[in-house]
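Late entry, evening session. Most of the bench is empty. Finally got around to the prediction I had been postponing all week. Sequence below, unchanged from the version circulated by S.P.
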Amino acid sequence: MRATPTAQRLPRSGKVALAASAVIQAVLGIEFVLSGLSKVADSAFAAHFRAFVQASPGSHRGIVAPLVQLLVLPHAAVAAEVATTRSWAPGLSC
């Protein structure tokens, strides 16, 4: 019988994993930037945002419904601006 070597091989996947992580991070960054830009380009985004939030079941029942009713709906324009900024800002930090 032949003896098998017991020395462990080190994986060569370190560089591949690092490269894959960089690609994923770049793709996500581009996605966030494009999402934010689409919101900036839509002149009626605040109105659409308000309608979307009002139509959402979570704004009428559930744990966060009182917060939505007290904070988001009365200040829909500010909430829409925050949503826009929070969409593209992470993409620029990548």
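Two things to note before I forget:
The chain has a mean pLDDT of 82.
Residues 15-93 form one domain.
Will write this up properly tomorrow.
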